[in-house]
Every structure is written in C-alpha cells, then in structure tokens.
Amino acid sequence: MDVQVVDYTATDAPQKFVESLRETGFAVLTNHPLSQDLVQSIYDNWLNFFNSPAKQDFLFDPEKQDGYFPPEVSEVAKGHEKKDIKEYYHIYPWGRIPADLESEITGYYEKASTLAGELLAWVEKNAPSEVAEGFSEPLPHMIEDTPNTLLRVLHYPPFTGEEEPGAIRAAAHEDINLLTILPAASEPGLQVKQKDDTWVDVPSKFGYLIINTGDMLQEASGGYFPSTSHRVINPAGGKSEKSRMSLPLFLHPRSEVVLSERHTQRSYLMERLKELGVV
Ligand SMILES: O=C(O)CCC(=O)C(=O)O
Ligand SMILES: [Fe+2]
Known about the structure:
This protein is of the alpha+beta class.
C-alpha cells in the first residue's frame, strides 16, 4: 500500500488514517486544523533566526536538550557515520525560546498537541482489540501534561556544492517517540522505505500534514504499528539556493508511562539515546 492521503473531515478518516499507519508507518492529512499560514509564518520567522547571529545566544543545553543545535553538532543517525546537513532548535514549553518568536511557536505547539491527542484516539479506536488492550493506559492519556513532547524547528541550509561527500540532509532513521506530526516542509526531499526496501517520496504538497509512527508506539503495540525508516535526500544535482524548513512535533509520553513489559518512556528513551551516543 502507498502512504494514504486522507481528508481529515471525511467520516471514514480515522479508519483510513490508521490503516495507512499500519501498512506504511505513515499517513497524510488534508483539510486538517493546523493553519498553513501559521506554518509559513513560522518557517519565515525561524529562517531569519537561523540566518542571524542571535542563534549563538541560545546554544543547546546538553543536560536539558533545549535550544539551538549548530551544524557541527547535528545528529549522526544510528548506523551512519556522516553528520546530517542541518541545524535545528529544540522547543519545550519549559525551555528557552527567543522572546520575539515565543508566542507564535508555543501557540503552534499547543494546537498541534491537541490535534495529536485526537489522532492518538483514532489509533486506539481503530487498533484490533488485542492491541488496544495491551496499552497500559489510553494513548491520548499518555501525553496529557507531558513535559517531554519536543517541537524541532529544522533548517537545512542551501547547498553550495562543498558538502561532505556522502552526507545527506537527514540519513535514514526511525523516530523514537509515539507519533510524529510533521507539516509538509518548504521544499521536497522526504522519503519513506517501503516493505520491499525501496524508497518512495512521501506526499508532501505544502499544506499537507504528515504523521508517522515512532518506536514507542511500535513498542507499545507489540510491533503492530511499524516505525518505518525515513530520510531527507539532497536537492537534485547537489545544488540549491534554497533553504529547506521543517517542523516535526515528536509526541512523548510522560516519563513514568509504561510502554511494555520491558520499558517505560524514560527507560526506552535512555536506551535509545545511549545507542545514538547522545548521553
Ligand atoms: O525534515 C523532514 O522532513 C523530516 C525530519 C525528520 O525525519 C526528523 O527530524 O526526525
Ligand atoms: Fe524523523
């Protein structure tokens, strides 16, 4: 099955959405409640921030993980050697946020988190009963009052042709969290790995909302919902004057939430961060 593009307002949207997640790890929503104008404004305002020296005043806190992560410290995806070609800013409601950008981005964080609760309810209602019965608490409840949900503002800089050979914007990886809510980026490049191991573009028309399953939902569902590999490929021809902006919201349960017999949110995250060499 291809990643399905689902009209959020259709009566059968929840079933179609959940079927696409089950089959591909991804689903795409149209006519959803997150305003395209708001996303565009966030992309514009944060591109200015990334292009200004002010970002150096917000260098990330290695303990708390909020703030600005420059290209030199950007992630190396699990099993890869080269750094991704990107810089980003981690927003937590309790964390540091540049004052002039704060109300817009926290407004988005709240709206997207509210929608996320609804989508988790769709997942729970449309999962087979034996899967749903395995959840330690209702899925939407897992993220209520969580301090752990992370909004990442991502900037992939224009290409100069002098990038490190073999490096790409985002190497293949899976997300760690429950679900990721990702408005279509300002430029193409997002791909998902299919069951036959081939890569295909995720439908990413500007205005679409892309949702994908992370490892924590895979863990909590005993593998029923797969957390599929995805990546962001480089601009065609290895050159582009344009920045690429994107805005994933990584939904994380509260730290003590039990995901499975083996793991709480906290123990699972620690295990993964150790694997990544981040802690
Ligand atoms: O930039 C994108 O489109 C996807 C980013 C992503 O997959 C991530 O940051 O985990
Ligand atoms: Fe991702």
